[in-house]
């Protein structure tokens, strides 16, 4: 046993004697490689790089090569890039952010194998065209049917630019649910889950778009974060055939109300609507629906569900027809007591669904929030990212394409 111990000790001693630090160039202190390395911002005395162009690092001369490059922004996020096989050049493969600060660290090796290092701090030029995002609705508590909206300051038409924008707009909820952005038009997006939001959820909305290159000289600008919460799940099922409204809280019926809806020619729209506003008193006139001076009156406890003027409201003049016939000009009428109760029970974002009417279907976007009338698969196809998944790729594959800046 003693013999083995001495043998191991002698081997260790021998290795230490022939492999000391002075003979290993990789363990030597890196030399300053400033004279051997150039980058694409060297021509600017303030080390300012153009974010519209790739970042390039080049080895000068034939007596050395680049072995490694890291470029990070102020938050420590890496910029992906590719190094040529001969170590002569490194080039970024994702866009840089505009108006951002970066640190570039370049490792080199000379012809003798000695390591070199150059560290450079630089900034990118500010963007000339910015895309600002305004999230909606206003912060506060809403019903479970309230979509999240994003209004862009400029039109975005190109599919690849839309993908950049959409990846940067983030919606997180607790409890967590999966949702998708849908492009309503070139300047408007809506976000919703497959089903309504959970009751008593917290929804946080923010943008990672600031400084990111979108395309055509356009860069992401500021966006104020948004926090929403949901209350109880309130749903009002309006049955024009039975002339009854059933109001549910968290799936449990809490009130059944005799109602009247639109008469023939003024039929109430079928479909799911979201409460847009609550007005304790609103003036309604026949002229507003093409009936001249046929009526002009104040209506109380009015809950708006379309921008074109459909409400749930008190209609004391039609109590004899409520629960029996449809005699309104498109609104849902009920007694004053029931209308006041409904007004005080619901909140913006709660759901009103109309069935068994002879009216047209509620449109998706141009008359309020008809978002929930669109089938989930159709909704997803309104996402710019859905196109990248038709070829069998997964959401994780799409995420890898996101610029890591």
Précis, in short:
This protein has 5 helices and 28 strands. The protein is mainly beta and 405 residues long. The chain has 3 domains: 29-124, Immunoglobulin-like (Sandwich), CATH 2.60.40; 129-231, Sandwich (Immunoglobulin-like), CATH 2.60.40.3710; 234-368, L,D-transpeptidase catalytic domain-like.
Give keywords.
six-stranded mixed β-sheet; mainly beta; Immunoglobulin-like; five-stranded mixed β-sheet; L,D-transpeptidase catalytic domain-like; 39% strand; 405 residues; disordered C terminus; 5 helices; 12% helix; disordered N terminus
Question: What is the topology?
Answer:
Blueprint: H1 2-18, E1 31-32, E2 37-39, E3 48-49, E4 56-59, E5 64-73, E6 81-83, E7 89-92, E8 101-110, E9 115-124, E10 129-136, E11 140-142, E12 148-152, H2 159-168, E13 169-174, E14 179-185, E15 188-193, E16 202-207, E17 213-215, E18 218-223, E19 226-230, E20 234-239, E21 244-249, E22 252-258, E23 271-274, E24 277-285, E25 296-304, E26 311-314, E27 332-334, H3 336-345, E28 351-355, H4 376-381, H5 395-400
Parallel strand pairs: 1-9, 3-9, 10-18, 11-19, 20-28, 26-27
Antiparallel strand pairs: 2-4, 4-7, 5-8, 6-7, 8-9, 10-12, 12-15, 13-16, 14-15, 16-19, 17-18, 20-21, 21-22, 23-28, 24-25, 25-26
């Amino acid at each position: 046993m003693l013999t083995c111990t001495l043998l191991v000790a002698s081997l260790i001693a021998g290795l230490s004697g022939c492999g000391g630090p002075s003979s290993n160039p990789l363990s030597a202190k890196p030399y300053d490689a400033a004279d051997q390395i150039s980058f694409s911002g060297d021509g600017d005395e303030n080390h300012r790089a153009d974010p519209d162009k790739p970042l390039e690092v080049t080895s000068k001369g034939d007596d050395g090569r680049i072995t490694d490059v890291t470029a990070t922004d102020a938050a420590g996020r890496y910029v992906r890039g590719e190094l040529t096989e001969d170590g002569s050049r490194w080039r970024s493969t994702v866009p840089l952010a505009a108006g951002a600060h970066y640190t570039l660290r370049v490792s080199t090796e000379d012809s003798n194998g000695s390591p070199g290092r150059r560290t450079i701090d630089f900034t990118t030029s500010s963007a000339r065209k910015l895309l600002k995002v305004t999230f909606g609705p206003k912060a506060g508590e809403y019903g479970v049917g309230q979509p999240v909206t994003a209004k862009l300051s400029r039109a975005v038409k190109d599919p690849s630019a839309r993908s950049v924008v959409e990846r940067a707009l983030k919606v997180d909820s607790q409890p967590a649910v999966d949702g998708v952005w849908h492009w309503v038009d070139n300047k408007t997006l809506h976000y919703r889950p497959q089903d309504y939001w959970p009751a008593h959820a917290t929804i946080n909305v923010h943008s990672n778009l600031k400084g990111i290159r979108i395309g055509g000289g356009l860069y992401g600008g500021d966006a104020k974060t948004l926090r929403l919460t949901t209350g109880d799940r309130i749903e009002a099922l309006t049955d024009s055939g039975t002339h009854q409204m059933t109001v549910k809280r968290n799936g449990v019926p809490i009130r059944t109300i005799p109602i009247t809806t639109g008469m023939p020619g003024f039929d109430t729209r079928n479909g799911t609507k979201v409460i847009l506003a609550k007005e304790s008193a609103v003036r309604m006139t026949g002229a507003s629906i093409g009936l001249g001076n046929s009526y002009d009156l104040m209506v109380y406890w009015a809950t708006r569900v379309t921008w074109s003027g459909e409400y749930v409201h008190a209609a004391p003049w039609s109590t004899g027809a409520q629960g029996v016939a449809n005699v309104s000009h498109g609104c849902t009428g009920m007694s004053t007591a029931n209308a006041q109760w409904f007004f005080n029970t619901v909140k913006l974002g709660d759901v009103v669904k109309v069935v068994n009417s002879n009216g047209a279907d509620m449109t998706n976007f141009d008359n309020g929030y008809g978002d929930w009338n669109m089938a989930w698969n159709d909704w997803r196809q309104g996402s710019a990212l859905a196109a990248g998944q038709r070829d069998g790729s997964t959401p994780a594959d799409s995420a890898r394409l996101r610029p890591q800046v």
